[in-house]
Amino acid sequence: MRGGLALVAVVLLGTACSGTGERHLIVGAASSMTEVAHRLADSYGLAHIELSVAGSQVLVAQVREGAPLDVVLTADAGTARALVDLGAVAGRPILFARNRLAIAVAAGNPLAISELADLARPGLTVVLAAPEVPAGQYTARLLENAAVSISPSSLEPSVRSVLAKVQLGEADAGIVYQTDLERSGISGVELPDEINPVTEYYAAVLKEASDPGRAEAFVAYLQTPEAAGILREFGFLA
Amino acid sequence: MRPATAGNIPARLIALATLGLVLLMGPLIGLLIRMPWTRLLGDVGDAGTAVRVSVFVSVSATAVAAGLGVPLGWVLARGRFRARAVLRAVILLPIVLPPVVSGVALLASLGRSGPIGSVLGELFGLTLPFTMAGAVVAAAFVALPFVALVSEAGFQGLDRNLEDVAATLGAGPWRRFRRIALPQALPALGAGLVLGWARAIGEFGATITFAGNLSGRTQTLPLAIFFELERDPEAAFSLSLVLVLVSLGVLFTARRAWSR
Amino acid sequence: MLSCHIAAIRNGFSLSVGFDLTTEEVVAVVGPNGAGKTTLLRVLAGLDPVQAGSVVVDDEVWEDPGRRIRLAPEQRRVGYVPQAALLFPHLDVRHNVAFGLDRHQAQAADAWLDRLGLEPLADAMPHELSGGQAQLVAFARAQVRRPRLLLLDEPLASVDAANRTAIRRVIRRELRDSPGYRVLVTHDPLEAAALADRVVVLDEGRVTQIGSVDDLRSRPRSRYVAELVGMNFFSGHASAGAITLDTGATLVSAEVPDGPALASVHPRAVSLYFERPAGSPRNVWLGTISTIEPSLEQVRVHVTGPIDVVAEVTRAGAAAFSEGEPVWVAVKASEVTGYPQ
């Protein structure tokens, strides 16, 4: 019995404590920031930044259930507010980048989609981000601003799966962030500024951060000209 | 059979088994503790559409899995060919694959531009992604292995001499299957169908990847729970409990009905 | 005529038999366990394939691997009654019997239930039947299709002793009345004698003797057959009425052609004495009683000596003997049936 119990105990303890040997900064990021967050982490130079990418609603749920995150990068003000409401944020969330929406279409735009109203064409398979995620809320605001009504084929759990469905050819069009179109290999249709809601990216240091000083330092870095250059390179407005 | 008494089981095994039970029961108990009981009925009522989609999709998927899985089980049990071990591994695959991978594989083959999906589209005007049929296919894909392998085990357990006797009485292969093997294997087939159904109603990853998420069409209860977690976490708890209780109830009654 | 001349190899066991049979006779295949009896039935039913030879029934080729002909079991007009009855457990008696019938012939099943006295059991499930009842149902199930070839595997093996006589009588009657070819397998010579006209003796996959039960009894061609029919068996070389046995001893027979010879002696024709008998017996020797084996009426006394024999004596007569004691053995020359090897 001692052998069996000891084995179970060793496995559980070993895996639960594996992060404590080297001090990592664990950064939770909204999925629309996957690539840029990696670049920012690299250029920041700290050897041990661990990125945990997930949809915004998953990030909030993770924080609520006590996931060991130090910093969270959200893709909208609402998610940042939700974190504040949970009482999880140390200080205030910092706005560090903006983005805008665009229509993703197959490479070369074979269906000649030129404006938002084209997405209401019958027979067109359009996927949108679910209203539970920031991209979905921005999309709703966009459609409201333009007074266009679309019947989507699917409300995807993250903006990246909207992009994937268009990339795979399963959907004819989707609404994604401008930044998602960079390096995606598919074409985009820009949307006019009057209807395009500006999306805001916030960085929040969590109260439960294992090393608040290092977390603060990383958030401060996001506001430097160097970080802004990287963000612009990925299509963000910074 | 001898009644099992605690005295027959070494204490060290009881300790480890208890630990295992705690691991299995812990999350369920947590769900019960966090349950907003007063809201239960209202939340379930609000999720009526997702419940209806789930019931329709899981039952249809079970029917598809039965129609294809029972013949597969028969081929495995009675076929005389070398590739049987390979075939068995292939059939097992959906059980061990992460459901998302199953969804990606389904997209790659049955999606609009996949080799099979494009043919279906051209010949029959049939598209599976983002349709309820797609959700059924995704659920059937993950349920099929359970039906096939449990059927195979059921067929293996039959006395083949009875099929031989049936052959001497003029019964060809189909009649031997239909009139001799199938009725005798019914308890096993029932168990396979229940397992397949349980897997189908809990299906999430393959469905959201392949069939997408649209209320009333492809949003099943697990998908609704996933999105509800953001909008209203307490409602997610209610719906999770409903799913747990329904699955538990079906598994329990099915076991009693079929363990003779 | 049914002609079966085949070689079948299965799991390392090789069966090589040849015999013909007519619709005039019931044939029993007799042999020890593992002789290939059941395999032979399965081959005839088409359940096991053969590697060479052919099975031809009434000029219809059922199986001939050389000509790539093989009828599936369902294409052969056979009726197979397996050893353990093997009724379909999910069907009641009536539906078991009617299984091989088209829907519009279903009343034929009731006629057969009636004929075998099974109609009170028509709605019973197989697990409710005794071994004998199950055997009769299996018999009816096969017979209802009027098979050209009827195959019975140990028809009485799963019948308890109390019902054996009754069931045997029914099966004997039905076998007589069946118009086609009839083959049964048994390990019991009494059953073969009761049910069959001709016996095919099978041992280790080979036919060792074919003949009537009387032939087998008076002229067994192997020690196995002799033991099967309870006869003393000897082999040797005959010259001028005396057979020199392989052991060196001599046995005098009233009539035996010169040359390699076999001989049989009925145990009842072997007499035992405490003192050397006077008078006519030509074969007299001193032996030792090895075992005394009582049965219901007779007692079999095994005697070792220059010639090992078994004597059958009455229970009363056996009381005087005990194992290990010397005894004089006498056999009249007229009781020694000699025949060429």
Describe the structure.
The complex is a heterotrimer of chains A (238), B (260) and C (341). Chain A has 238 residues and is α/β, with parallel strands linked by helices. Chain A contains nine helices and ten strands. The longest helix of chain A has 15 residues, at 2-16. Chain B is mostly helical. Chain B is globular. The two termini of chain B are 13 Å apart. Chain C has 341 residues and is an alpha+beta fold. Chains in contact: A-B, B-C. The interface between A and B is medium-sized, with 26 and 26 residues.
Brief overview:
The complex is a heterotrimer of chains A (238), B (260) and C (341). Chain A contains 9 helices and 10 strands.
Topology diagram in text:
The complex is a heterotrimer of chains A (238), B (260) and C (341).
Chain A: H1 2-16, E1 25-30, H2 34-44, E2 49-54, H3 56-64, E3 71-74, H4 77-85, E4 89-99, E5 101-105, E6 126-129, H5 134-146, E7 154-156, H6 159-167, E8 173-177, H7 178-181, E9 187-190, E10 199-206, H8 212-221, H9 225-233
Parallel strand pairs in A: 1-2, 1-3, 6-7, 6-8
Antiparallel strand pairs in A: 3-10, 4-10, 5-8, 5-9
Chain B: H1 11-33, H2 40-46, H3 48-78, H4 84-96, H5 99-110, H6 115-124, H7 132-156, H8 160-168, H9 173-201, H10 205-210, H11 221-231, H12 233-258
Helix pairs in contact in B: 2-12, 3-7, 3-9, 3-11, 4-7, 5-6, 7-9, 8-9, 9-12, 11-12
Chain C: E1 2-10, E2 13-21, E3 26-30, H1 37-45, E4 52-57, E5 60-64, E6 69-70, E7 78-81, H2 93-98, H3 107-115, H4 131-143, E8 149-153, H5 161-177, E9 181-186, H6 189-195, E10 198-203, E11 206-211, H7 213-218, H8 223-229, E12 232-239, E13 242-245, E14 250-252, E15 259-265, E16 270-273, E17 283-294, E18 298-304, E19 309-314, H9 315-318, E20 326-331, E21 337-340
Parallel strand pairs in C: 3-9, 3-10, 7-8, 8-9
Antiparallel strand pairs in C: 1-2, 1-4, 4-5, 5-6, 10-11, 12-13, 12-15, 13-14, 15-21, 16-20, 17-18, 17-20, 18-19
